[in-house]
Every structure is written in structure tokens, then in C-alpha cells.
Specification:
The chain is mainly alpha-helical. It has helices spanning about 5-10, 15-20, 30-35, 45-55, 60-65, 75-80, 85-90, 100-115, 130-140, 145-165, 170-175. The protein folds into two domains: about 5-65 and about 165-175, UraD-like; about 70-155, UraD-like (Orthogonal Bundle), CATH 1.10.3330. Helix 2 packs across helix 3, helix 3 crosses helix 4 and helix 5 packs across helix 10. The relative contact order is 0.16.
Length: about 180
Amino acid sequence: MNMDIPTINALPYEDFVNIFGNVVEKCPIITAAIWSRRPFESLTDLEAAISQFIDALPESGKEGILRCHPDLAGRDLQSGTLTRESREEQAGAGMDALGPAEALRMARLNEDYKQRFGFPFVICARMNDKTRILQQLSERCQHERAVELERGVEEVKKVCRLRLQALVRTAASNKL
């Protein structure tokens, strides 16, 4: 899918939510809420509308967004129940190819993180590899909760940006 902004602006509500409903993992309500902000001037404008919606949420709403994300290399990956986007992102980072020791360490760190913060560790897998993800997970377990909430939300926005870029054709990509 690679639609231009005029096409996106013309989408009926249901189509807009169906197409963009997972740019923030399992949070189609965000897409539903920003549909009424059309017309969008550009991909940047669409992305800004999503970011503004997220930023305006109370802390509990931001935590809810983080809780919609699966554990990296967790049971959803093992059982094949990840969303298509998450499956591709995790595979691209090597999360589906961890050795036994790496898988055990990842599971332990994921559990420690969730116990400490009350939401899963979120990182933009497409911008990292398994070594960097394990390193970040280990380091970020030491942070304060408020720092991790903010960091997790920023990582959600990175994931969203990359997912939007895969769906939206920009003027620059028209010239390619």
C-alpha cells in the first residue's frame, strides 16, 4: 500500500481506520480519533496529528498504549499471534533467531522490566538489532518509571513513523 495524501484525505472513516489502525500497535482508536482532523497537508501532518493525540493523553492512556505492545521475542512471536507489522519488525531485528541463552536472557529481562514498570519494554525494532535491543532492555530496566514511560512513548512514535512511511507516498517518493 502506498497512497498519496489526497487519496488518504478522501478515505471514508472505516477504510481510514482499517488501513491506518495499526500504525500504533493495536490502537485503532487513535486513528479513529484523528480521522476528523483531515485534510492532512502531508505525511508529516498526519504523523503530527497522531503524536499530538498521544501527547494529550493522561499518563494512564500512555501506559495503555505501551501495554498494547507485545514482548520482544515473547510468546506472541513464538505462537505466531503477532500483528503482521510486529512480526516483520521483530524478524528484521533478529528476534525470531535468538539462541537459547539470548532467548532466556530476553525473557528474563522482559519480565523484570514489566514487573518494575507495569508495561512492556518498547523499542523501535526496525532501528535496532538483537544485540542493541538486549543492551537497551538491560540498561532501561535501571531507569525511573517516569523516564521509561516517556521513552516508551517516544519509541512508539518511531514505530508509528516507519509504519506510516510504508503506507503513504510522499512527493519525494513520487520522483523515484
